[in-house]
Amino acid sequence: MVKAVVLGAAGGIGQPLALLLKANPLVTELGLYDIVNTPGVAADLSHISTPAKVEGFLPPDDGLKKTLTGADIVVIPAGVPRKPGMTRDDLFKINAGIVKDLATGIAKTAPKAFVLVISNPVNSTVPIVAEVFKKHGVYDPKRIFGVTTLDVVRSSTFVAEILGNFSLSKEIVVPVVGGHSGVTIVPLLSQSSHPLPAGITTPDYEALVKRIQFGGDEVVKAKDGAGSATLSMAYAGAEFAAKILRALKGEKGIVAPSFVSLQADPSGAAALTKELGKELEFFSSNIEFGAEGIVKINPLGTLTDAEKALVKAAIPELATNIQTGINYVAEAY
Ligand code: NAD
Ligand code: LMR
């Protein structure tokens, strides 16, 4: 029996993500929470002929607590999205408070659940969840994940496009490390399961890196004020959640990038820190999952000079974003 919960389940990401989780046969119970519309979303999904029993709750009558009771995995896409001209950091003011309150609810009701954070800015909201859990004495760094899968999904798609073979998209795996915003998004294209064309020019390589780093902006611009990526994010979130669910069920050797606390695996963290040349509390690298959460944080491995430069460029912004999240919780208590 596995209970999955979506917090922010009535939103642009929340609804399709809830649909994809309802379609996952490993989920037997699906709890949906939002400040609006969850009873309707739950009623709608509950007619789908898959195993999960669906319930939707709103804030009154302890709705958050009811949603979270018995949760094994909690996905958080609650919060405001960007509009053109905004950075993800511009969302911090509103989303920090939303994530802090939801993390408090999880810490109180489902402290052992795996927490998957989608709400932006991920580089700061993941540290917020970690700090809230510390304040409640329930922190387990092995169970908190920043969802960076959309960057991986975009990389697969854009590399397939360059290779001129869209049918390869699903097979192409590119590790994307660092964090989830602009220059903190570092695609390790030299480690792509399907190499780039041997003759790719430097400008074409740089344009590809830029497109992966700023893919979110492409969608924000196209939506023209109506929000940011929702459908591709729901797909990516469901892919990541599916991996966690398989690990929960005991499958071994599942690996994917995620933005996590380096405390989750001190020996892996030591090797990674040596590669980075700087101590960071959180970083996205390839992570191996198990039934208890993070089993191993993998090192970056061999990088090209261009990739080393990208990692170096990511570090200052990442360090600032992480500290912003930590300071927010310190000031709130
Ligand atoms: P949206 O506005 O469509 O949906 C957000 C939902 O959150 C709404 O239904 C809203 O009612 C709900 N909500 C607000 N406050 C809440 C609270 N206190 N408790 C529960 N629910 C609450 O936005 P969206 O497009 O779904 O995006 C959600 C977030 O995901 C944004 O912060 C966005 O930047 C982020 N995002 C992250 C990634 C990523 O790769 N990690 C990708 C896309 C979007
Ligand atoms: C994305 O990468 O699409 C998301 O982080 C949403 C955004 O604000 O770009």
Q: What do these coordinates show?
A:
The protein is an alpha/beta fold and 333 residues long. The protein is 44% helix and 16% strand. It is built from 11 helices and 11 strands. The strands form 3 sheets. A 6-stranded parallel beta sheet has the order 3-2-1-4-5-6, sandwiched between helices. Strands 9-10-11 form a 3-stranded antiparallel beta sheet. The chain has a two-stranded antiparallel ribbon with strand order 7-8. The protein is globular and about 60 Å long. 49% of the residues are buried. The site of (2S)-2-hydroxybutanedioic acid has 9 residues, from helix 8. Nicotinamide-adenine-dinucleotide (NAD) is lined by residues 7-8, 10-14, 33-36, 77-82, 91, 95, 98, 101-102, 118-120, 122, 147, 150, 180, 227-230, 233. Keywords: NAD, Oxidoreductase, Tricarboxylic acid cycle.
Provide key terms for this protein.
single chain; binds (2S)-2-hydroxybutanedioic acid; binds nicotinamide-adenine-dinucleotide; alpha/beta; EC 1.1.1.37; three-stranded antiparallel sheet; globular; NAD; 333 residues; L-malate dehydrogenase (NAD+) activity; Malate dehydrogenase; 11 helices; 11 strands
